[in-house]
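Hi, here's the filled form for the chain we discussed.

Project: internal
Contact: R.S.
Residues: 327
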Amino acid sequence: MRNNRAMAPHRVAVLALDQVVGLDLGTPAQVFSTARDADDTHYYVVDTCTPGARPVRSSAGFQVLPDHGLELLDQAETVIVPGVYGDATLRCDAIEPEVIEALRAAYDRGVRIMSICTGAFVLAAAGLLDGRRATTHWAYADRFRRLHPHVDLDPDVLFVADDRVLTSAGVAAGIDLCLHVVRTDHGSEVANRAARRCVMPPWRDGGQAQYIERPVPQAPETSTATAREWARRRLHEPVSLRDLAGQARMSVRTFTRRFRAETGLSPAQWLLHERTDHARLLLESTDLSIDQIARRSGFGTTAALRQQLHLRIGVAPSAYRRAFRRG
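And the returned structure, exactly as it came back:
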């Protein structure tokens, strides 16, 4: 976690290759540019580069005219490779040697390396994913395994953070990964503010399933959203499954089925995540005691909060607070 104050913005380089996926290309600039403090100070600056600073085609039918070549990677603190489209562009021999060399050099220099969607194929071709857990778009999982058998691929999650190498699934999962990085760098308050500016949910856990069958509700009253909002306002109180189902005017069985279809989680799992995230925000942004935070987030006891926080992020509440305490 960086000390935000009195520091130059963190430099992010987006490396666009031929047939770059348009949404993936725009995601880092959109998310990181909205990461600001209360005084509107930007924490990141995002630039785009291509091999030789040449124009590249996008999968959406437009050309990308970059301002930088691969030398931008020499100045970056984070490098992001967006997805590329088409089987031909995913072959190892289709990736230019200078791209491989630039990515390896950046990693060796200590830079954080990220990919969105099929950008993981590029990181794998550079050897940066060998022996690591990683993910990519679920539709490309079989092809990825054939080409890169030494990577521990998990196609069932939204994103994977393995030390300084981070990979995400397709399309919107790139937003989740970028928000995760903002949260890791600057805490939940900044990440939540960025999410609001992007009109996105502030947090989807990286372990959430990529592909969820989600029937479109026929009418608003068939959704569990109202019950979820009701529960968010009462995290400090006991909330039972029957209470939630009652708020949605559904039977427990119907509510449980629809809740999982809409969120990818059981009601109990979702409630635990909400309480943990609320506790994290209180640890970062208030001077409440750990015991008070445990009660206000619905855990009841410090021991229960400590256990859940350790399960989720591997640290105790006091250590988490120290890490995110502003100067």
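Let me know if anything looks off before we file it.
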